[in-house]
Amino acid sequence: MTKQRYLTLILVLGSLTAIGPFSIDMYLPGFRAIAESLHTTTENVALSLSSFFIGISAGQLLYGPLLDRFGRKRPLYFGLSLYIIASVGCYFAGSIQMLVGLRFVQAIGSCAAAVASMAMVRDLFPVKDSAKVFSLLILVLSASPLIAPTVGGYVTVSFGWHVIFLILATIAVLITLAVIFILPESYPPDPSYSLAPGPIIGSFLGVLKTPQFYTYCFCGALAFSGLFAYISASPIVFMEGFKVSAKSYGWIFAILSVGFIGSSQVNSRLIKKYKSEQIVNTALIALVVIAVAFLIGAIQGGLGLVGTTAMIFGVLCCVGLIAPNTSALALAPFEKNAGVAASLLGASQMAIGAMVSVGISLFKSKSAVPMASIIIVSSAMALCLVLIGRQFIKTKVAAKQGGMEAH
């Protein structure tokens, strides 16, 4: 594979991965405007974020088997088409109930792109390069937190929040064209793959029983929940708590995203010297320490805007190191069921993200305490999980080696 071809594939796969985050980040600055337009509260508008997380979590489980049965591109076309239709529907939404429902449908469409892109990384690139490829995907993905909230803030002020969803629909159309003309079919349809409930459940259970998968899948999902806690709470904390404007919030969001983006790119260099497991362990310990300091500062009320921003920056730096490595480690054991594994990986992240989002809305607090509380609990659980799971992985490897020696 030539370098130009390599970079082109990364760009298209990264764009697919970015559809979901763009759908989240671009409309965040419009929370207050949406609430005023639809005669509701920002807490109720946050439910449209929760419904998106729920939709993208459930939908990923749907697309996994379809990607393994029909190849990667046909289910991807369906998902992108559904996303475009739902995005146009959001433009015409006249009530918060309608917006919440359409955001769910929009999520069902977008998760086809998320699952397909992860599965195609496993299809197109060697296993040893997976962590590096995921880091490069995050580099493309970084366009979302850097550009989307800033653009969303200006669009909301200048044209109204509805226009944001037309922009999202247009982006999806352009990405669909790139998939048609640039992206290869990386996995041929497999007629032998059954879509009956029994075999599908069997495939999911087979993946879930793999110690390396469940250890790093759920470890990554728990660590990633810190990002979801930030995304869900930040419009309320910054715009309601600290009284920043929609435009200023967009800039703060973009600046904070540098932590996530920068650390994910540092990771592509670190993996040349260290194992992914080592990076995950170190980053998890750092995340727990930062989360403790964040919670103490938030409870005491002495952090202020600058201190809160600094703590979130540290959290995002840690998550940026953890995410690509846990994804690569979780998918490494699979070749035949990469679509199912990728769907479970993404679904677990979004399921926890949905719970975090709902939890943030239930707190009904304008302080950073709920955000910090969720981050410290989830990061501590992730650290415990990886320490325990490592023992199961060693046992599995030892048993496999013993079986091979016996033969």
Structure, explained:
The chain is mostly helical. It has one domain (11-179, 204-406): Up-down Bundle (Growth Hormone, Chain: A), CATH 1.20.1250.20. The chain is built from 15 helices and no strands. The protein has helices spanning 3-25, 31-37, 42-70, 73-91, 96-124, 130-141, 143-159, 162-181, 197-208, 211-241, 246-270, 276-300, 304-331, 338-363, 369-406. Helix 1 (3-25) packs across helix 6.
Shape: globular
Instruction: Please identify the structural class as seen in this structure.
Output: mainly alpha
Overall domain count: 1
Residue-averaged pLDDT: 86
Number of strands: 0
Instruction: Spell the H/E element sequence.
Output: HHHHHHHHHHHHHHH
Q: Give the helix tally.
A: 15
**CATH-defined topology:** Growth Hormone, Chain: A
N- and C-termini, Cα separation: 38 Å
CATH architecture: Up-down Bundle
Helix percentage range: over 70%
Oligomer: single chain
According to CATH, the homologous superfamily is MFS general substrate transporter like domains
Strand content: under 5%
Poorly predicted spans:
none
Q: Report the radius of gyration as a whole number of Å.
A: 21 Å
CATH class: Mainly Alpha
State the major sheet. none
In short:
The chain is an all-alpha fold and 407 residues long. It has helices at 3-25, 31-37, 42-70, 73-91, 96-124, 130-141, 143-159, 162-181, 197-208, 211-241, 246-270, 276-300, 304-331, 338-363, 369-406.
